[in-house]
């Protein structure tokens, strides 16, 4: 793979292929730029996007029992998606990272990992299936310190190992530099930016990114703007459209 970090131009999906839409969104516990906690506003943004897969950050309240800020019934009603439950208390996410799937996307395997660093961080690694296509999606929210982010990326790559399954990593990378801060990731993944996502009212920094391995072709990636998106969180949602290579098979018992 040739590493690259770019904002891809809009391309046409190959004939007969069905684009896959993924959104990464730091919802800031549903607290908007007006300092109001408004879960319904976040759900309206997710409905605007119309994703197949949503990877959320800061999806739970900070203090135990870390209750989710979005109600699963309301998520279903507003977006048609359903959250993946991790069977770990009442929280919707793992270290705040949550995964929502449209009905036609089936969860095949799930792994939850702690990540090193000064702050408690983690990632979720899910293997999902759409029809006869399999891929791995990874949700992350990296730390505020560059030293911690480097440790976390090293640990993440170790968790992923050498599995050839097409993989998409998405989240709040909290990093402005592709070369210094994300260099170890770019050796194995193509890092994508849809432009500045922070601060949502006056976007300046591209803190939210997606990274893809071979087998996943980006068509378009943008920071989604709307009246609700500009106020629902301090981050804009990052929306990517992708096509997958020829059907990827998975041996029985495979896991991320």
Q: What oligomeric state do the depicted chains represent?
A: single chain
Shape: globular
Calculate Rg over CA atoms. 17 Å
- Structural class computed from helices and strand pairing: alpha+beta
Task: Specify the CATH homologous superfamily.
Answer: Endonuclease/exonuclease/phosphatase
Alpha plus pi helix count: 5
- Kindly report the spatial arrangement of strands forming the biggest sheet: 1-10-11-9-8-7-6
- Main sheet specs: 7 strands, mixed
Describe the structure.
The chain is an alpha+beta fold. The strands form two sheets. It has a seven-stranded mixed β-sheet, with helices on one face. It has a six-stranded mixed β-sheet with strand order 4-5-3-2-13-12, covered by helices on one side. It is globular. It has five helices and 13 strands. The N terminus is likely disordered. It has a single domain, classed as Deoxyribonuclease I, Chain A (4-Layer Sandwich), CATH 3.60.10.10. Helix 1 packs parallel to helix 2. It is 16% helix and 30% strand.
Jot down its keywords.
single chain, 256 residues, alpha+beta, Deoxyribonuclease I, Chain A, 7-stranded mixed beta sheet, 6-stranded mixed beta sheet, 13 strands, 16% helix, disordered N terminus
SSE arrangement:
Layout: E1 5-6, E2 20-26, H1 39-49, E3 53-57, H2 72-79, E4 82-83, E5 98-101, E6 106-115, E7 121-130, E8 133-141, H3 146-160, E9 167-172, H4 183-186, E10 190-192, E11 208-212, E12 216-223, H5 229-232, E13 238-244
């Amino acid at each position: 793979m040739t590493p690259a970090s770019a904002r891809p131009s809009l391309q046409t999906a190959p004939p007969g292929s069905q684009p896959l839409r993924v959104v990464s969104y730091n919802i800031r516990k549903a607290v908007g730029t007006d300092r109001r906690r408004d879960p319904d506003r976040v759900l309206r943004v997710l409905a605007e996007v119309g994703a197949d897969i949503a990877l959320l950050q800061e999806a739970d309240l900070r203090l135990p029992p870390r209750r989710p800020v979005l109600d699963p019934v309301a998520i279903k009603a507003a977006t048609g998606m359903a959250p993946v439950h991790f069977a770990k208390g009442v929280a919707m996410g793992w270290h705040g990272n949550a995964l929502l799937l449209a009905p036609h996307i089936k969860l095949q395997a799930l792994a939850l990992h702690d990540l090193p660093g000064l702050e408690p961080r983690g990632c979720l690694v899910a293997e999902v299936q759409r029809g006869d296509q399999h891929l791995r999606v990874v949700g992350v929210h990296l730390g505020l310190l560059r030293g911690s982010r480097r440790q976390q990326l090293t640990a993440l790559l170790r968790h992923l190992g050498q599995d050839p399954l097409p993989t998409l990593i998405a989240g709040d990378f909290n990093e402005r530099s592709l070369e210094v801060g994300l260099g170890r990731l770019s050796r194995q993944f193509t890092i994508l930016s849809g432009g500045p996502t922070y601060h949502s009212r006056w976007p300046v920094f591209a803190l939210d990114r997606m990274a893809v391995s071979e087998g996943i072709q980006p068509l378009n990636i943008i920071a989604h703007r709307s009246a609700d998106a500009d106020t629902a969180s301090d981050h804009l949602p990052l929306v990517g459209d992708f096509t997958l290579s020829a059907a990827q098979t998975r041996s029985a018992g495979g896991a991320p």
